[in-house]
């Protein structure tokens, strides 16, 4: 029940890249404001359940809290509506769980434990490591409220939510000792059906593994076919689970959906790719290196490099490979004295990345070279191959 790799990496990134924002978000003043807002909202919008009126639910909650090693006063609430669901409202040192619709009437004892395990795992995560993971969540929430928030901010918040739900699903399986109650609860809440065979649904979800990997399109929660597989793999101790989750929730690096972590990864990849491109002495002319330092003012002679076969489709999609082609094109055209050699090296690298045609098209469009020169480069590339 440790945080997922995405949680760890984002907290580390925010602490290093935004220390002042982190200091503000973790301040007591900001926490006090949040506490008052949550309390007022719950009192205004819900019916508060008491241990006297709902002893079974409170007893189930206390049992789940003991398994998750949570010690805090608990208050349960009921909201209206026809849709079944539940939510945790986080306050430091206090547990507040809100039930929606007829969810308490439709779930069996194990499913209720799974539902509570899911919601209380949110509390556990937010309380770990001095509240770091809740601080990160609040930073993302405040960032998205700003009109200047970028697409990378929105995608970071989305992925953080998706991985948090995966963590909470693990909590549901942890407190019940099996994946089944977690899966049947997911299906009941989603569909409203009265009886669910969790093994049959898990087999149904796994049928999708026979086709191409499907990237989640969820905005706050992954699709339940992904959540069912994720919790099943976790209970089974699948050693490839972290890689599977990254492929299904994040996908490879893509220029259209970079989050804050992917931006940092892309910068590292670019540095190493540029270092590989200028590794030959003939390529390190003053003009070329001047252009390199426009990309990276802190460039050093000890930069690491990357092998092209390490840039797999699982790591980077065609948009990133084309971007790397534009970087090479920019450097290759920086110095007329090394241009021909640099362009041939760039074209060879593009070919190894599977983007030779795209590179030549970019050269025609952006490089300002006559068509005959581009065609000559294509012939040289074919002859070299």
From TrEMBL:
Give a single Pfam family match: Peptidase_M48
Q: In this protein, which residues make up the domain named Peptidase M48?
A: 57-124
Spans through the membrane: none
Q: Which cofactor does it need?
A: Zn(2+)
UniProtKB keywords: Hydrolase, Metal-binding, Metalloprotease, Protease, Zinc
- Top-rank taxon: Bacteria
Q: How is the cofactor bound?
A: Binds 1 zinc ion per subunit.
Is NADP one of the keywords? Answer: no
Instruction: Kindly give the InterPro entries that the UniProt entry links to this protein.
Output: Peptidase_M48
Which family is this sequence assigned to? Belongs to the peptidase M48 family.
In its UniProt entry, what is this protein called? Peptidase M48 domain-containing protein
Instruction: Give the organism, scientific name.
Output: Caulobacter rhizosphaerae
State the taxonomy lineage. Bacteria, Pseudomonadati, Pseudomonadota, Alphaproteobacteria, Caulobacterales
């Amino acid at each position: 029940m440790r945080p997922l790799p995405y949680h760890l990496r984002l907290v580390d990134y925010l602490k290093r890249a935004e220390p002042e924002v982190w200091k503000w978000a973790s301040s007591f003043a900001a926490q006090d404001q949040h506490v008052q807002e949550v309390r007022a909202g719950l009192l205004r919008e819900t019916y508060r359940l008491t241990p006297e009126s709902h002893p079974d639910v409170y007893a189930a909650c206390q049992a789940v809290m003991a398994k998750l090693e949570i010690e805090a006063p608990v208050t349960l609430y009921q909201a209206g509506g026809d849709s079944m669901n539940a939510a945790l409202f986080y306050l430091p040192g206090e547990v507040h769980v809100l039930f929606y619709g007829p969810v308490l009437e439709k779930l069996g004892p194990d499913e209720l434990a799974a539902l509570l395990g899911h919601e209380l795992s949110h509390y556990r995560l937010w309380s770990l490591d001095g509240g770091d993971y809740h601080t990160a969540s609040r930073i993302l929430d405040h960032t998205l409220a700003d009109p200047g928030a970028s697409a990378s901010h929105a995608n970071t918040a989305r992925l953080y939510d998706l991985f948090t739900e995966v963590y909470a699903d693990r909590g549901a399986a942890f407190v019940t000792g099996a994946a089944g109650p977690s899966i049947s609860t997911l299906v009941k809440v989603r569909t409203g059906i009265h009886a669910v065979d969790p093994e049959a649904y898990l087999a149904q979800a796994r049928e999708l593994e026979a086709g191409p990997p499907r990237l989640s399109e969820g905005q706050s929660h992954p699709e339940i076919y992904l959540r069912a597989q994720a919790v099943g793999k976790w209970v089974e101790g699948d050693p490839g689970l972290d890689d599977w989750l990254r492929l299904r929730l994040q996908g490879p690096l893509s220029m259209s959906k970079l989050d804050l972590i992917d931006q940092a990864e892309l910068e590292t990849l670019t540095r190493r790719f540029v270092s590989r491109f200028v590794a030959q002495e003939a390529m390190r002319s003053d003009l070329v290196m001047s252009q390199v330092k426009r990309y990276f003012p802190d460039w050093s002679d000890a930069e690491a490099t990357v092998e092209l076969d390490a840039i797999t489709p699982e790591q980077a999609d065609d948009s990133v490979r084309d971007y790397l082609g534009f970087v090479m094109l920019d450097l290759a055209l920086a110095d007329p004295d090394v241009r021909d050699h640099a362009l041939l090296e760039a074209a060879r690298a593009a070919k190894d990345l599977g983007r030779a045609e795209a590179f030549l098209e970019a050269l025609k469009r952006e490089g300002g070279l006559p068509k005959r020169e581009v065609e000559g480069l294509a012939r040289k590339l074919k002859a070299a191959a």
